[in-house]
Write a structure and sequence with these properties.
This protein is of the alpha/beta class and 478 residues long. 35% of the residues lie in helices and 19% in strands. Strands 1, 2, 3, 4, 5, 14, 15, 16 and 17 form a nine-stranded mixed beta sheet that branches. An eight-stranded parallel beta sheet has the order 6-7-8-9-10-11-12-13. Helix 4 runs parallel beside helix 5, helix 13 (355-370) crosses helix 16 and helix 14 crosses helix 16 (426-433). The protein is globular, with a radius of gyration of 21 Å. Bound molecules: zinc ion (ZN). Zinc ion is lined by residues 110, 112, 169, 267, 290, 345.
């Protein structure tokens, strides 16, 4: 071990991480949760155990920016207990991670999992089958069982693609049973998440969302803050649009949600919308806005002043919403120090949950806008995809980086695959060359759910076949 490495390791291990440990060692997963009668899923994840990922190129994504070209990560009972070099851990399984990039799992910040199973039916090349007309038409045809099948499909796809935390932006909650079904699917897949309770696609614009049922959800599902956080998804008061929720209805919702103490989220992108939100006091640190497009300079200042956070979905924003809402204002918001993260939006509409592609899309967007050599460095993009996303979700004490005391959300990426080799700078290779098939291992909250590139404890065939049956049913009814 070189002097620099040992200095780095010492500094790293005696850093501020000890304080995290107490907060990150909460109780078992969903132990007090109600069962969903209509589903009987098999256990989806392997039990926790102790192991060391040995000799990988460790990208810690910690605040000091420390990487270990030949480092170890020691995991016990779902927690990262040590990160460094030549860690000794008697009794732990040693897993060879040489020739791997070892990094935090991706943190996704806005994803409509309920329509994952509509993939293929949603078409970008046919206005009648576009995302909005199709989800509006078929959303009311979705049963709770459909919600379960679709959310489980998306969550499984996410895990296999290296996403270990996601924000389920649930805007087809038509009944309490739909809410329970989506929550149950997240629980069964063992993925860390925020569930943002929304509305039903057929809810009249003049009717507020079901705050009473959200209160029930808080009581019944709010007991595992390490794995599941709750929030609310709001309809947009889109200026000039016939689909806008009336301001007085929105105000009732915002006031009610603030009484419940829940974070909120809303789609933006349409010009003038943030001004409308500011006029009713809806902006604040409890608000996550989505689609950083179409903002005026004044709106950007209001965003920065009120300390809200922004989720960017570059794949969707470069395709579906680019014409309507303009380019992604990453650089402007970064300059104002607005917290930013990355998201899928819909893997039904954007075709997959490939977070490498999401990172690349932001890079391309910013590169094209700047017209100069790459001003958005690959390391910064990986930051947005991991620790910055965790910060956006209020989960940065729990996940998003490889530090002692944090929950173990980790992926390993093969450096010797044909599309990756040779790797000189791991960040550059991840952003320019990476794809989900390069992921060798996924550790979600300490449980290995993908190993040697294959699912562990996740019945992919069953999940896929049940999602296809669900989609066929929805389409036949719709
Ligand atoms: Zn969205």
């Amino acid at each position: 071990m070189c002097d620099l490495c040992s200095l780095r390791r010492r500094d790293f291990l005696k850093g501020a991480f000890g304080t995290v440990l107490g907060a990150a060692t909460g109780g078992g997963l969903f132990s007090a949760l109600p069962a969903l009668a209509q589903t009987s899923p098999a256990p989806a994840v392997a039990p926790p155990r102790e192991f060391v990922l040995r000799g990988g190129h460790v990208l810690t994504m910690n605040a000091a920016g420390i990487d270990l070209p030949a480092g170890d990560v020691h995991i016990r009972d779902g927690i990262i207990v040590a990160v460094g070099e030549n860690i000794s851990a008697a009794g732990a399984e040693i897993i060879d991670a040489a020739d791997m990039i070892v990094m935090p799992g991706f943190v996704e910040t806005h994803w409509h999992l309920w329509n994952t199973a509509l993939r293929g039916a949603i078409r970008a090349d046919d206005p009648k089958a576009g995302y909005f007309p199709l989800t509006l038409r078929l959303g009311p045809k979705c049963t709770p069982q459909d919600a379960y099948a679709s959310v489980r499909l998306g969550a499984a796809e996410g895990l296999m693609s290296g996403i270990t935390t996601l924000h389920n932006w649930a805007h087809n909650i038509r009944t309490p049973e739909h809410a329970n079904a989506e929550l149950q699917a997240l629980k069964d897949m063992g993925i860390r998440s925020r569930f943002s309770y929304g509305w039903g696609q057929d809810l009249p614009l003049t009717s507020p969302m079901n705050l009473a049922d959200l209160t029930r959800v808080q009581k019944e599902w709010g007991g595992s803050p390490n794995m599941l956080r709750l929030g609310a998804a709001l309809r947009s008061p889109t200026p000039g649009s016939r689909g806008a929720v009336p301001i007085d209805v929105l105000k009732v919702e915002v006031d009610g949600l603030r009484k419940l103490g829940l974070p909120m989220t809303m789609h933006t992108g349409v010009k003038g919308l943030v001004d409308v939100l500011a006029s009713i006091g809806a902006l604040g640190p409890d608000m996550m806005l989505v689609h950083a497009q179409g903002l005026s300079e004044g709106e950007r200042r209001a965003v920065a002043y009120t300390k809200l956070v922004y989720s960017m979905s570059p794949v969707i924003e470069l395709s579906f919403s680019a014409v309507r809402s303009g380019t992604i204002q990453y650089e402007e918001l970064k300059t104002l120090e607005v917290p930013l993260g990355l998201s899928i939006d819909s893997s039904g509409a954007s075709a997959s949950a490939d977070f490498f592609n999401v990172m690349r899309a932001l890079m391309w967007s910013d590169w094209q806008r700047s017209g100069a050599p790459l001003r958005l460095p690959p390391r910064r993009i990986v930051q947005l995809a991991t620790i910055d996303g965790a910060r956006l979700m209020g989960l940065d004490k729990i996940t998003g980086s490889l530090e002692p005391g944090k929950r173990a959300d980790i992926i390993t990426v093969r450096k010797l695959d044909l599309n990756m080799a040779p790797v000189q700078d791991p960040y550059y290779s991840l952003v320019f060359s990476g794809q989900p098939s390069n992921i060798d291992m996924v550790v979600a909250d300490g449980r290995i759910v993908r190993r040697n590139g294959a699912a562990v404890g996740i019945d992919v065939n069953k999940i896929v076949s049940e999602a296809i049956a669900s989609a066929n049913g929805i389409l036949s009814r719709g």
